[in-house]
Amino acid sequence: MTRSQLGLGWLNQSVQTVMQAKQWHPIILLLWMIPLLLVGFFDLENQSLMAHDEGLYARRARVIVDTGDWIHPWATPHHKTPGPYWILAIFIKFLGRHEVAVRLPSVLASIGCILLTYAIGRRLLSPTAALLGSLSLGVAPLWLQYSRLATPDVIFTGLVLFAIWLLLLATAATQHNYPNSNWLYLGAGISLGLTVLIRSALAAVPIACLLPYLIFSGRHHLKQWRLYLGGLLGLLPIVLWLWLGWQRYDMAVINSLLNFPVRQSLTTDRAKSPFFYVINLLGNDFLWAFFALGAVVLLLAKLWRSKQTFHQLAQPQISLLLLYPLSYISLLSFASTKLPHYAIPTYPFLALLTGYAMEQLANAAAKVAIKRLLHAINSLLAFLGGLLTVAACLALTTDSLPSTDDIRLYAPTALGLGIGWLGASGLWFKSHQRQYELINWLGLLLLGHWVSLSLAWGTADLGNINPEMKALLLRADIQPILQTEAIDFSPGLSSKRSTLLRFYTPNLGQKLESLEQVGTNEYLWIENSELPQLTQTYDDLGQIRQTHLVHIQSQ
């Protein structure tokens, strides 16, 4: 009998084989993530940085490379620890000054995070739940976006995950009397200490959120002096950096670090609702966040029904998988400054909760209430999938939709997601809703999002955040000027565009205090509003929104 004759039976057998082949799970995760992370990644002509925060990190890293000063290349004491700048500067130094160099650390960290999420999931859950959860992490939109940006969020998350994995390994090693547990504690401490180098004061949040695990499940960890020694070793780079900075700026370097989070907490322009992160997660981790929410309900119900509450809290599945992300989101929710990417470190744990819910759903497939719920969900997916598919086809082939030109760019993405939802709902209505068939249904949902996000990053230029700037910088008549001439910066230049231009401009000129300093035969980045103040004759060579590149003519 051929595969085509076997139909869904062949699919069921293949999925079951994949789920049972635990040794292949890491390879599956790599094959899942690498295309998502690298599609369109090396197309430098269609890649550009985001002004904040990518541009800030990239520009500061360039300053380190240009000056050769890896301690304090800035005129005043800096308000953040230098870990992210050091990492980006190393990649710029060896790979060159472009988007691939500064974004590659996040890509590599994301791959490591996916594998660590699976490894942690294997110790807290079943291999099937760990695999499904790790696959869902890769197709969480916000996670994927920041996995391809030059920011420290995913690197920071990787250090926390590495420390947690080592602590779980140390527990297993202690239980089996393995001799290498001492090194595991040392490594966990070093990893947690290094988080301060990467994220300054924000490193206190994951450390605080680990307390429920350490108190309920891992009190034996707290007795290990090597954990504290490792923490001190991880803090050594910061101590050395502060000492060298103190020699230049005295207490100002420490005051700058301490005052920055205080100033941030007092600002009101970013103050948002206490439910900001909950609402944001439902959007930025769409579909999978609802699975994670279901897992939270299941675990809380399990805790509520238990007659031995403390015993349940002592289970890492509760103290780490449940209490850690809930504590993290709660702490962030009470902070005055709220930004979506602050929640990035919770995404691996939400993914594992998603995997747990998926497995529980498959195990409960025979229950009538579950069947009715899934029937309603698939009816909705069929409707939404059909709507997306029809709209995408119309946008790609006709001009009948409103603002067709604007939405046509995203039509392939909608088409991939629509077909995925239609396929999953079709599989559900054709199947008998047995356990392995539900796993196939979940797999198709994941695959639909994978195809959609792959098309999005491959066709919608999502990595090209400032296309006008990149287009001007690559113009054939502008390139020789940029490579041979120093470009000055006007006093009123837009801070965001100035940040990016200080990274992209090959030969940096000076920041002018006034336009009276402009000399003849010089080149200048200048704002549109400042042009009337120029007394010299100039040639306007190009424009990026309200910012112009001008050449001051000789008198």
Write structural notes for this entry:
By secondary structure, this protein is mainly α. 66% of the residues lie in helices and 5% in strands. It is built from 27 helices and 5 strands. Helix 27 links the parallel strand 1 (487-489) and strand 2.
Present the secondary structure layout.
Layout: H1 3-6, H2 8-20, H3 25-38, H4 51-67, H5 83-95, H6 99-124, H7 127-138, H8 141-146, H9 153-175, H10 181-199, H11 204-209, H12 211-217, H13 225-249, H14 252-266, H15 276-284, H16 288-305, H17 309-313, H18 316-319, H19 323-334, H20 347-363, H21 368-397, H22 404-408, H23 411-430, H24 435-459, H25 467-473, H26 479-484, E1 487-489, H27 495-504, E2 508-511, E3 523-527, E4 538-544, E5 547-552
Parallel strand pairs: 1-2, 1-3
Antiparallel strand pairs: 3-5, 4-5
| Strand content bin | under 5%
Could you describe the largest sheet, including whether it forms a barrel?
5 strands, mixed
What's the Cα radius of gyration? 26 Å
Oligomeric form of this entry? single chain
In round numbers, the mean pLDDT is: 87
Total strands: the figure is 5
End-to-end span in angstroms? Answer: 86 Å
What percent of the residues sit in helical stretches (DSSP H or I)? 55-70%
Uncertain regions spanning at least 5 consecutive residues: 1-6
Number of helices: 27
General shape: globular
Q: Which class of secondary structure composition applies to the elements?
A: mainly alpha
How are the strands of the biggest sheet laid out side by side?
A: 2-1-3-5-4
